[in-house]
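Section 5.1 Outputs to date
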Amino acid sequence: VGGGNVVEQSDLMVLREGDLVFQHTGGEQGRAVQLATGSPWTHVGILFKSAGKWMVYEAVGPVQSTPLEEWTAHGDDGHWTAKRWALADQKLDTDALGKLKKAGDRFNGLPYDLQFAWNDERIYCSELVWKMYKEGLGVELCAPKPMRENNLGSETVQRVMKERYGAAPPLDELMIAPGALFDCPELRTVLER
């Protein structure tokens, strides 16, 4: 529904803390993620308010909070979508939000994981969101799957894999992609821009 990367006042009225926000980011990594997963979504973060301002907690370099307006401007095509946990109305109260934030605190400042490993030394965007919901609320937003279950045959994906892993990619490494979270039946779309 049009609107580009502008965040309008009516958008802010719809959003809630704990919502997941998805976008497409450009570059070779974004294209490789799209090809491997079959999804247009290449980046995800989680919304919280800080001093009355909407912030996206995301893994982008270090894990950090980014103002929503700035976050939307980073998207490749200006399109972004917000999704909400289906049980948010019943279960995502102030106490649960505190647990969700606390689960994310331990990742703050960690470097971005270019190899998409399922450990906590470095972290990538969808892994951050998944682990926050799992550790903070005990909620698994779909199941991580081994790298080999993605479409790894395209030239772009093969080139990126070779750059990152050499001749031995970790095909059994569990991963969670932004597109897998987007398609998770536990989430409902609340806003499309």
